[in-house]
Amino acid sequence: MLFSRHDTLRVADILADAARAEIMPRFRNLPEGGIRTKSSAIDLVTDADEAAERRITADLLAAFPNAVVVGEEAAAKDRRVLDAIADAELCFIVDPIDGTKNFASGLTLFGVMAAVVSRGETVAGIIHDPIGHDWALALRGEGAWFQRPDGTTRTMRVADPAPLSAMEGAVGITFLPEPLRSTVGANLAKLAAMANYRCAAHEYRVIASGALHLALYNKLEPWDHAAGWLLHREAGGYSARFDGSPYLPTHRSGGLILAPDEASWREARDGLLNR
Length: 275
Fold this sequence. Notes:
The chain is of the alpha+beta class. Helix content is 34%, strand content 24%. It contains 9 helices and 14 strands.
């Protein structure tokens, strides 16, 4: 299946339209009861998430009538919708607000993400920043770039390889099981610096553009990772699950480490995961 740059920009516009219409009017303006918990106190959904996903889904199906849309909030209600990712000719995986806890807290680190998947392979990724009014985009085999509304672009490129002691990383330990959580936590001192934005959308933007060297995740929901993984890959990076196997949007477990190249990845995995 061919998915063109024109198609990718069409999806980018759909995400931006939903952000303008459904997300930004509710930012720092949610009514009482407009924030709710899902699986836990740190897993939130807001009126804005649900309204944006409805609009994005409707607009994607209008633009691509034969597609399947897998949205985070739809999947929260029925996990069976995830089954479409492996076999659909054209599937959009949508995160209407990534960084919902930040959004609900009035913080500006949140984004809108969509991955385009064909037969289980990610072919395009789009991350929209409603605050910065731009997109990070990737098209399989054609690179990754930032694009502004006026059409100006800037190529994305991962950081140069570095030893672990010089690496800056985005490392999330919240969903790591014990004893691995304690092991990784103790090993973070091996890094030059560590960040956690509570927002994969922005973490992927900075690692794919070279502002961070590595990222480590354990929970692999496809709306959190499929788009950003392709950004990083098309920006020249290397990534794999903890066991060294390639990441796919159908994976739900096994962790994920992203680094500038394979040698850096191996050093990061051994340095962070081993006692």
